[in-house]
Design a protein that fits this description.
The complex is a heterodimer of chains A (396) and B (108).
Chain A (H helix, E strand, L loop, with lengths): L1 H10 L1 E7 L3 H10 L4 E8 L2 E7 L3 H11 L2 E8 L1 H10 L1 H17 L2 E2 L1 E5 L6 H11 L5 E2 H4 L3 H11 L3 E9 L2 E8 L13 E3 L3 E10 L1 E2 L6 E2 L4 E4 L1 E5 L5 E5 L3 E17 L1 E19 L2 E10 L6 E9 L10 E17 L2 H19 L6 E11 L2 E13 L1 E3 L1
Parallel strand pairs in A: 6-9
Antiparallel strand pairs in A: 1-3, 1-4, 2-3, 5-7, 8-9, 10-14, 10-24, 11-13, 11-17, 12-14, 15-16, 17-23, 18-19, 18-21, 20-21, 22-23
Chain B lengths: L8 H12 L4 H4 L4 E5 L3 E5 L4 E4 L3 E6 L2 E15 L3 E13 L13
Antiparallel strand pairs in B: 1-2, 2-6, 3-4, 4-5, 5-6
The chains are: A alpha+beta (396), B mainly beta (108).
Chain lengths: 396, 108
């Protein structure tokens, strides 16, 4: 059926109508004469609509007379008729040809250079290197595409921070993917001391190298010297040698952390009002164009903004260069809502617990947790004290 | 000539021969071949012409009599010398051997 339809399109076909009491007979006579009909529809008694190959239609003419029916061509369809219509409109044809040639010409250039995968490197620096090597917006694809391997090699030489580089061609976009080297932190050599990183009560000292200057049970403050980077050796002849060393060891101490949360007993809550304004915008690259808007919000009123973003042609717009944005502005009225101390306390506890992970260093667990709270001037003050045991010795 | 239900001597011989030689009987006996796909499409091969066509009924002449296809929104998608393709909601397919011409008249 598809092949028959394709054949009909390329040969040209007619949508015709036959009227008369013997319209079925006309079809039978046509079939006997080798004419093929399709999409036959009975529109009314004695009126049949059909499609027929254009070159076969003249064969039906004698049958119209013999069957006493009348035929009428309603539409001429298919490639030959389409081409004839187009050929008559020379201006349109020329415009279309120019448009297609312009499209083809423009699509044979690189217009965007996208740098992805960089973390510490500046993408502009990568683009500058690429521009020097010949890959910049406006360069013809046929010139630059064969040089891909050379470009990658040269870029890697120019970017010692990169461990791997590749270039992907996506239409008019050249996507440069850079994977940066991850260097280990520099090893510190030479003598050093260990000082207290935070306030604490010393509970244990593990010495590897150096001279300890504190004892268990002592209270130290942040910055106090804990282990001196100096070793004393007594030789057999009684002489004492003092040598600068790299202090090493652990000074474990009780450390206290404090988390304070203030929870108001009266809060302002927004209520959406009547005023509403919707603005449609189009983002092309970094440009934001306002298309149209409707509704209004009172000037000076508090407004809430909701933004919905839709990518235009997501299949051909992988870099999200064009987006349709719908901003909804609604007026907001603020009302005071009273909160009970119990509810405020629950909220404060939840907030404080949520902050424990951010206050404590990684790998340190709380040994003891103390909590207290009080209400003052319409605010609930909640305090959480966390005691830990951890190594507080850090290089100075 | 309508001969549904009554076979001539030639017809009986042809049927036996087709059965014995395992040949397709629609070819040997020149019978129409109907392919009905659900209630959506009916393809009739080896027809002898269109007798009547309306949106609710299509009558086809065949070698063994009139074939009436009843339904709703019936359309003839394609008609050639030996094949008719009917689309729509097909409710009944009926052989009008005995009723003949009057069964397939617009007023029937």
């Amino acid at each position: 059926m598809l092949s028959q339809r394709l054949n009909a399109f390329f040969q040209g076909y007619l949508v015709a109508m036959v009227k008369g009491a013997r319209s079925e007979e006309l079809l039978n006579r046509g079939i006997a004469g080798g004419v093929v009909f399709w999409d036959i529809e009975k529109k009314a008694p004695g009126t049949i609509l059909f499609k027929v190959h254009a070159r076969k239609y003249p064969k039906l003419r004698p049958f119209f007379l013999r069957t006493g029916t009348t035929g009428k061509i309603l539409r001429k369809k298919g490639w030959p008729f389409l081409w004839r219509r187009v050929w008559r409109k020379k201006g349109w044809l020329l415009g279309m040809a120019l448009f297609l040639s312009l499209l083809l010409t423009l699509s044979s250039f690189i217009w965007f250079v996208e740098v992805t995968g960089v973390e510490t490197l500046d993408p502009t620096l990568v683009r500058d290197h690429l521009a020097v090597l010949g890959l910049a917006p406006g360069v013809p694809r046929r010139v630059i595409v064969p040089q891909r391997d050379w470009l990658i090699r040269e870029l890697r030489i120019r970017l010692p921070e990169a461990v791997w580089v590749t270039i992907r061609w996506q239409g008019v976009v050249a996507e440069v993917v850079v994977a940066e080297k991850r260097l280990p932190p520099p090893v510190e050599e030479g003598p050093r001391n260990l000082v207290a990183g935070k306030d604490g009560l010393i509970t244990e000292i593990l010495l590897v190298e150096g001279t300890p200057l504190v004892r268990v049970g002592e209270m130290v403050s942040r910055g106090d010297l804990l282990i001196l980077g100096e070793a004393t050796r007594v030789h057999l002849d009684g002489s004492v040698e003092k040598k600068k060393v790299k202090a090493a060891g652990e000074v474990r101490a009780r450390v206290w952390y404090e988390i304070e949360v203030d929870e108001p007993l009266a809060v302002l809550e927004p209520r959406v009002g009547d005023g509403k304004k919707i603005v449609y915008r189009l983002r092309v690259g970094n440009r934001l164009l306002t298309l149209f808007s409707h509704g209004a919000v009172a000037p000076g009123a508090f407004v809430r903004q909701d933004r919905a973003v839709k990518e235009v042609l997501p299949g051909r717009n992988s870099l999200s260069l064009v987006e349709l944005i719908k901003d909804t502005y609604q007026t907001v009225e603020w009302t005071t809502v009273q909160v009970t101390p119990e509810t405020a306390l629950l909220k404060a506890e939840k907030k404080a617990e949520g902050r424990i992970g951010t206050v404590l260093p990684a790998g340190v667990k709380p040994e003891k947790v103390l909590a207290d709270w009080r209400v003052q001037a319409g605010v609930l003050h909640y305090r959480l004290i966390i005691e830990t045991k951890e190594n507080i010795a850090v290089p100075d | 000539m309508v001969n549904v239900g009554r076979q001539t001597l030639k017809g009986r011989f042809g049927a036996k021969l087709a059965e014995y030689l395992e040949l397709p009987s629609d070819v040997v006996l020149n019978l129409p071949r109907l392919v009905l796909t659900g209630d959506r499409q009916l393809v009739v091969e080896n027809h002898r012409g269109l007798k009547l066509y309306s949106q609710t009924e299509v009558c086809l002449q065949t070698t063994i009599g009139l074939l009436t296809v009843g339904g709703e929104e019936l359309n003839i998608k394609l008609i050639t010398a030996d094949q008719v393709e009917i689309d729509g909601r097909i409710i009944r397919v009926e052989w009008n051997g005995a009723r003949g011409e009057e069964a397939c008249s617009p007023n029937a």
